[in-house]
Predict the 3D structure of the following.
Amino acid sequence: MVSARVVTGELMSALKRPEPRPTVLEIEAYVPGRSTTPHAARVFKLSSNETPLGPSPLAVRAYLAAAEHLAEYPDGSSTALRTAIGHAYGLDPGRIVCGAGSDELLNLLAHAFLGPGDEAIHTTHGFLVYRIATLSAGGRPVVASESNYTADVDAILRAVTKRTKIVFLANPNNPTGTYLPFDELKRLRGGLPAQVLLVLDAAYSEYVRSNDYEAGIELVATCDNVVMCRTFSKIYGLAALRLGWLYGPAQVVDAINRIRGPFNVSQPAIAAGVAAIDDVRHVEVAADHNVRWLPWLTEEIGKLGLKVTPSVANFVLIHFADTAGRTAADADAFLCAHGLILRRLEAYRLPGALRLSVGTEEANRRVVAALAGFVEQAG
Ligand SMILES: Cc1ncc(COP(=O)(O)O)c(C=O)c1O
């Protein structure tokens, strides 16, 4: 006869299964900006802050040439790319780490510096990857409030506890497009305990034209607890290749090099990145395009009676009413029907807004015309 105890034991072991860390199950998986809509034959994807000008033709050529060597492992240290970045920005290549997008680097930073129960601060509408990286490392995300859709240094400093290990700050921030001037960054750094790592995510820095802005190079150069992350996905137009880099103090660089994958950046990405960095003119043209169209979009959309948060990046946050027929969801449906895909922002705690990336002249004009149609039909 089989005892009840044996049956229960078998049942228990059948129910057992490998379980991820509890914090992993708190993560809502990242949902990227949509790229298709069933409603229109011609689609303008303005939902992921990609450059409308594409990559440098030199980067494309370098990428294609790398196809001759696909059987070989890449240089695991991305030496040529670190050297090119160091040369372009006047930085020590030994203090640069390249990654498969800055997303990878943000995750590696969380994994290297957060233990179970450690806290990482980000702001209310901060980039979603900070929360995901923190939870996946077993840490606790702590939200610091913003003022007027802008990071608030005092709120961040108030959120610091003994358990704080990282402050993640996108500057400019995605999806708000707002930024902290250099003085405020210095005040933030100065108010943080020395053991807290300040991660400055400067994914959109190449677009900023404000005199009081500094991406982070100076702070990293002078402080032991500041890291700057950058990306090739935005102004360089290489999002598909997954390429980013960080510049940090020697001990941070050492930690990241210990835990990153040995070949975390592919050779085609390294080759394209080197060529992209060298094509200074291409970046200038992309920045000029933004200088022309960012204020135009802000102004024209504002003239329609919609509130636009002033942005220094390559996108704008558009706010909608919360009355039926005029909401962000209504606007999104209307725009999608016209082949215009913007970014819904519920996950960013901005259900009443849409984010619009600066597009080609044609796309920008179409968005303004479609929004005018939306406002008119909404009455
Ligand atoms: C603020 C911010 N940081 C980092 C990234 C990620 O960039 P990457 O493509 O290099 O992973 C993005 C992309 O949207 C971003 O908006």
Q: What stands out?
A: Residues 49, 101-103, 127, 170, 174, 201, 203, 231, 233, 239, 244 surround pyridoxal-5'-phosphate (CB under 6 Å).
